[in-house]
Amino acid sequence: MPFGLKNAPQIYQRLLDNALYGFLRISPGAATEETKDLFATGEPDAKSGLSIAVKSTWGYRKVEYLGHRVSKGGLEAHPKDLQSLVDLPLPTTLKAMQSFLGSLNYYSRYIEDYAIYASILYELREVDFHAWRCKWKANEEVTAQEDDEEKWSKVQVAFAMLKNKIATASILRHFDPAREAVIIVYASDWAISASLVQNYDGLYMPVMFTSRTLKSNEVNYSTVEKEVLALLRILETCFTMLVTRPLKVLTRHSTLAWLVKSSGLQVRLGNWAALLSQWTLEIVKCKKGEDQVLGALAASITPRKNVDSILSSIAPKKQSRQVADLPTPTVELNEELYVMSFDGSARVKQGGGACSAIVWRLPAWTIVAAASKYLDKSTVNEAEYEGMLLGFDLLEPMERRRLIICGDSNLVIRQMRGEIECKASGFSPLRAKALSKLQSWSTHAVYM
């Protein structure tokens, strides 16, 4: 069998089942008292010569396996030392916080809205912990920024919530192919989540939870678009369970049904509609709001209106990405000019980086100069500035004519255009040097 084959465990298990079936030939539920005694004592079978290890256990209705409890009723999270995890104080180092989050991430499928609650903890950096340790370890009166106080207050709330979540984690039912699969989607200003549930005696019992925070460019999406992201995420996570099955989706917005049924949509909506076209979806809008389904939710599923109020106390400061609204550069027919493009990159952990620049001459788009270099210590934006300065060095001996400068760094371009201030001490000398070189070009424009 090829190494690393995705379905190797299933193939291996089937191989063992087929091999051992010829020795035992005992169907489940047909074990006699003599067979149970044989399993208990570990005595060999006279006919087959097969024996059972004494440490083996048989007939348990619930077993523990790799931090989980597995039973007929479903899956339960069962950490090795739950009490120590619950009593854990707030970590004072980044490594300790990462260890805590790594432990909980193993059980993320059991924690509803896990990524939402853990978002502000993932944003912490070593400098944040260093400042926090200096403040409390020295036991001095330190006047902290109001934003820092608010941030650490949210960190403590989120940390306590996550410990409570793992202590009261939901029991996840085994997916039953005979029952209807129901998806509940949720979207807030900065996060999305989805729950896969199935109906048991009039109650929606959880099968899987998934969630994530929104990227900076996704914060501006409408609520319906965010719900589509949540739907796509749960469909991808539970693909093997849900593929080829009709699905019911509970939502608070009727526009989601319009998106699924529409054709001829453009760009982002068109791509999403194409991804959803392979699924048989029944979009159900709760006419009376979420109250219509609250009575059918299991106690382990948090009503969405309660989540809204909880999130206000732990929401990180996520801002939508501000992209420079720049006009498209134009060139006259047969106009002679130079176009300089630059780029830079950095590997922050290793402390190195690189930058490059290219100069074209129009109208023939002839490359007249190009260069690149390595940087010993640099951030990404510093590498971008170094790339621009490298481009100016290439332009130095050339005849002065109209110059167009192009780059992909939002910060560098907007600082060069004077649209945002340059506050970082590392950028100020680089920006001043670039502006000084730019003065020798009377006709120029900077674009992104």
From TrEMBL:
Biological process annotations from GO: proteolysis
Keyword Protease: yes
SUPFAM superfamilies reported for this sequence: DNA/RNA polymerases, Ribonuclease H-like
GO MF, one annotated term: nucleic acid binding
Taxonomy, superkingdom: Eukaryota
Domain Reverse transcriptase RNase H-like per the UniProt entry, residue ranges: 176-278
Keyword list, A-Z: Aspartyl protease, Endonuclease, Hydrolase, Nuclease, Nucleotidyltransferase, Protease, RNA-directed DNA polymerase, Transferase
Domain RNase H type-1 residue range list: 342-429
Entry annotated with the keyword Protease: yes
One Pfam family here: RT_RNaseH
Protein name in the entry: Reverse transcriptase
